[in-house]
Design brief:
- By secondary structure, this protein is of the alpha/beta class.
- It has a single domain, classed as TIM Barrel, CATH 3.20.20.
- Helices cover 21% and strands 24% of the residues.
- It is built from five helices and nine strands; from the N terminus they run βββαβαβββαβαβα.
- Helix 3 links the parallel strand 7 and strand 8.
- Helix 1 crosses helix 2.
Length: 216
């Protein structure tokens, strides 16, 4: 039987900074490698000098912390087929598992026990052409949609898409300002003015620790 290997950027224990799980202690498994280059990307370092670890070794590492919430993120974790074995193994051991994905890869094969947190890339990311529209049909109330807003144009594009596709009826929709690119106050005001049914979120870890710190 072959040993499944994953390329890992880092594994660490911190507070969840985003999603409806924000504020909770969480173990993060950051996989290396991404096929997109978002203009506001804050984890480009995940592509540098990855370590190779077996699924069993990763799970043993995760178990060192007394925490039952795990996020598998990247980079883009769905680029590595062995991620499905890792996710299934974590779920089977009783962990609550979050998967952060760009929305550019097929999410239909992800273990249904997982909370899929899927980006929809706005124009300001420079990667909007990579949005995989068919993924919307695979989302359930167990999942979440994330939209990063880098300016008014992004906001209006996202607002119109939410209304057109009734995204809030599929699952929670999270809207966050691109750090340092748009005013936190402006985005909050736009949401309130339009009575938009989304959850406003900040990257909490960037306000607790220095914004350029890794491993938090």
């Amino acid at each position: 039987m072959s040993v499944e290997i994953l390329k890992i950027a880092e594994i660490f224990y911190s507070l969840q900074g985003e999603s409806t799980f924000a504020g909770l202690p969480c173990v993060f498994v950051r996989l290396s490698g991404c096929n997109l280059q978002c203009t506001w990307c804050d984890t480009a370092y995940a592509n540098d000098h990855p370590a190779e670890m077996s699924v069993d070794d990763i799970m043993e590492h995760v178990s060192r912390w007394p925490c039952r919430l795990v996020e598998v993120t990247g980079g883009e974790p769905l680029l590595q087929p062995a991620v499905h074995q890792l996710i299934a193994g974590l779920c089977s051991q009783g962990y609550e598992v979050l998967l952060e994905t760009s929305g550019a890869e097929d999410i239909s094969g992800v273990d249904p026990r997982v909370h899929r947190i899927m980006d929809i890339k706005c124009p300001g990311s420079g990667m909007g052409a990579h949005n995989r529209g068919e993924n919307l049909s695979h989302l359930t109330a167990n999942d979440q949609i994330k939209m990063i807003i880098a300016g008014r144009t992004d906001y209006e594009w996202a607002r119109d898409l939410i209304r057109e596709k009734q995204l809030d009826r599929i699952c929670p929709v999270l809207m966050a300002p691109a750090f340092g690119r748009v005013s936190n106050t402006d985005l909050a005001q736009w949401i309130l003015e339009d009575h938009l049914p989304v959850r406003y979120q900040l990257q909490l870890h960037k306000y607790i620790w220095p914004a350029d710190w890794k491993g938090v």
